[in-house]
Amino acid sequence: MTSPKATSPKPTTPVALTIAGSDSSGGAGIQADLKTFAALGVYGASALTALTAQNTSAVSGIHLVPPEFVTAQIDAVFSDLDVKAVKIGMVAQRATIEAIVDALKRWSPAHIVLDPVMVATSGDRLLAPDAIAALRAHLIPLASVLTPNLPEAAALLDEPVASSQAAIEGQGRRLLAVGCAAVLIKGGHGGGSDSVDYLVSHAGTLALSAPRSPTRNTHGTGCSLASAIAAGLARGEDLETAVRHAKAFVSEAIAAADRLSIGHGHGPIHHFHKHY
Fold this sequence. Notes:
Blueprint: E1 15-23, H1 29-39, E2 43-54, E3 59-64, H2 67-78, E4 83-88, H3 94-107, E5 112-114, H4 131-139, E6 145-146, H5 150-157, H6 165-176, E7 182-185, E8 194-201, E9 204-211, H7 221-234, H8 239-255
Parallel strand pairs: 1-2, 1-4, 4-5, 5-6
Antiparallel strand pairs: 2-3, 7-8, 8-9
């Protein structure tokens, strides 16, 4: 009589949760996050904070999800899935921020990547002005890494947009003082032939540079970078490695964006550039 063959345990599937708004055109928000997770081999779960009527040219409407239902989504995911990292994008309003903070304090995820989404690529505002103080006081202190672009970093500090490396590093240090563990200030809004991001932590500052691609198809760039960092952290990478890999992934996705022909405004980046 033959004994049954021993079966090796299944490898753990890395899971990341995105808490963000929906983009009906599919290029940013929840849709961009889930595409990024999938492209990087991570299972993506989601909790929607808002629905947007949006395309590559403009945001024509925003429908907020009730904060208690945001809570219900987060609780449903954490009670069943082994979430290794959380990415937070559009939070829209103060009450939603408070709901997210309460839920994350309850579940205590190991890694939180916070992208302080304030304005869409089209220029439309996505965060209520009175919510900025709540973001700063309650959500930023929970973040493993905060990922503002240059205008967002300035808005969070109520300062002018930084235009030099010294000024960017200074804003990064002041954001660290708000309570997050690290800050990645993105240089996409800067000038020059290279796009330079600055990772500022208590250990120092790391500059990450990539050639600037001549394309207007940059819709969802910030969402995708933050979710790529979360994917790396979910896979067990340390923060610097996750940021380096995320920067490379998004740079390649931007460089390949013109292979897609989507919409009449700022088209999406190419999340699946390695596959087609």
